[in-house]
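FW: tagging you since you asked about this chain on Friday. Here's the raw sequence from the shared folder, copied in full. Didn't touch anything.
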Amino acid sequence: DQNGRIHSRYDKIHMFDVSLGDGEEFRESDVFQPGEKAVIVETPFAKIGLSICYDLRFAALYRALAHHGASVLSVPAAFIHTTGKAHWHVLLRSRAIETGCYVIAPCQYGNHGTARTYGHSLIIDPWGEVLAEGAEDQADVITAEIDLDKVLEARQRIPALIHDRDFSIEQV
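HL: got it, structure written out here
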């Protein structure tokens, strides 16, 4: 809060355990335990849904955050260069569009031992437009104006959260 007190914490739910080929392998579960709960922080500005890095690949998490009132999604990350180059922008824009939320996604850049992170921090509006983008190869600060009326506008234009339905799957 504005007094520096911590009221909650979010523990990353999804561990990055992947083998990308060419010796590029990561096993976060060897070092970390996954979290078990999603978190929305109510601030004077907005309700902010929290997530971390690999959580980005699990759309249901973000739909749940939006269904529970989040209007801004926070996605700090250390996407590796291989997956960042291929997926970072499209996944973040998809989460913004699917939920009608702003997405704020700071991403680490640089070389870290044998790994290289992607950079390209992003701020995306609820319509999926990139409002600000950071560099790939240097530390920087990005800013953008956030107008929460655009959350309501995007959700009225395409009311996907209202139209969301449970369904069954038939296997034949």
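FW: The beta strands are 17-19, 25-27, 39-42, 47-50, 72-74, 102-105, 109-112, 115-118, 122-124, 130-133.
HL: agreed, and The chain has one domain: 17-163.
FW: great, closing this out.
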